Amino acid sequence: MNKVIKSFALSVLLLTFSSCDVLNSAAETILETSNEGEGRKRLSNEDVIAGLKEALTVGIRNAVDVTAITNGFLENNEIKLPFPESANAMKEKAMEWGLDAQVEKVVTTLNRAAEDAAKEAAPIFIQAIKNMTVQDGFAILNGGEGAATDFLRRNTTNELIVVFAPKVQTSIEKVKLTEYWEPVATRYNQAMFFTGGEKVDTDLNNYVTERAIDGLFTMVAKEENKIRKDPAARVTELLERVFGSLSN
User: What is the pTM of this model?
Assistant: First the structure.
C-alpha cells in the first residue's frame, strides 16, 4: 500500500511540475533508493552463503598475511607469545642468574616459530568454509561479532592442532628455539631437584601450537568484525549486499 501511495504521489508531482528539473531528479533518486532497498531485502540463501564465504576468505587471507611474516606475532601485543606462564618461576630465576638475554631470545624464537607455522593455516580454514551449510550461514550472519570466527574455531581447531604440531616442531628446530630454551630449563630443573621445587616441561611444541592457533583466531575475528562494521572493509559488491542488509 505504501508503495502504491508513493508511486501515485510521485506521478502527481511529476505531472504538475514536469518542467522542474529538481523534482524530476528527486523522483529518480527516490525510486532508485526504493529499488536498492528491495534488492537488499531479496537476498537469497545462495547470496548469503556466497557472501559469508567471501567474507571469511578475505578475513583469513588478511589474518594470515599479517601473522605469517617476520614480527607478525612478536610485534603484535594482542597475539605475541610471552615466556610460558607456567615457567615464570624459571624466568625469574634465570634473570637472577644473569640470563636476561637468553630469556629474551626464548621469547623472540617462540614468536618466530608461530610466524613460520601460521603459513599452514589458510588451506584448513578454506576447507571449513567450503563445508558451510545454509543453516551455518544464517546463524553466522545474524550471530553478531565473532560468529564466523566461532564457526571456524569449532570446525578447524582439532585439524589445526594435528597439522600445526609437526610444523611447529619443524619451525622450532628452524629458529633454533631449543638452543636457547633447553639450557635455561635444564639448569632450572637441576636446581629444583635439590630444592624440591616443581620442574618445568622442556617441550615447547604444545605451547607454541596452542598460542599460534589462538593468535590466528584473534586476527580472523578482527577482520570479520571490520567487515561487519565498516563498509570500506566490504571490498566486493556481494559483501556490501550481504552485510549491508544487516543495517537496513
Answer: 0.72
Minimal CA–CA distance to 178: which of 195, 150, 201?
201
Residue-averaged pLDDT of the chain: 77
Residue 65 pLDDT: 93
Which grid cell sits at 62? 588478511
Taking the domains of the chain in order of start, what are their residue ranges? 1-42, 44-247
φ, ψ of residue 91 to 5 degrees: the values are -60, -45
pLDDT higher than threshold 60 for residue 37: no
Question: pLDDT digits over 130-165, tens only?
Answer: 888 888 888 887 888 889 899 889 988 998 888 888
| Grid coordinates given for 43 | 537476498
